[in-house]
Amino acid sequence: MGKPGVLLAVMTTAVLTSGCYYYPVPPPCPMIAQASVVSVTVAREYVPQVGSLRLKACQDGVCKEAAVELSPGTTSIDQGCTPDGACSATASPDGTMIGMLMLDSLTEAPMALTATGTSPGGRALPVRTLDFRPRGAYPFGEHCGRFVTASVILDAEGLRQAV
């Protein structure tokens, strides 16, 4: 092949490769499923007043009501990272109580939530209500799908959406 053939081969290769783009491969998605729940955190200061808790959630014309089993809440304590990049954390009780109301489905449509319950002595707690909109986010990237969460905090003032 002479000089014109080599020149033609180089030019063709340059034209063909310049049309290629690098598309980074997205990181893998965690293999977890989203639970359709309303989660409630009873604030530390309000825990001594709550003996039992019941939630009723209504969304898109469908309501679900049940007693909520409360468990001790925790906060993550950073344990730091090693020089090779391995990081760790531990859970430590924070004085709150947490519970969940399982739903058949959860969307970003407006939701009406009602909390009732009793004190440890059996006295009725004030009825608390909240109208809010569950939040959607992409915690693992858009390629992994949207997660919808409905989280609230119950304290002496009432119910409020968790941040």
Automatic annotation (TrEMBL):
It comes from the Bacteria. This is Lipoprotein. It comes from Pseudarthrobacter humi.
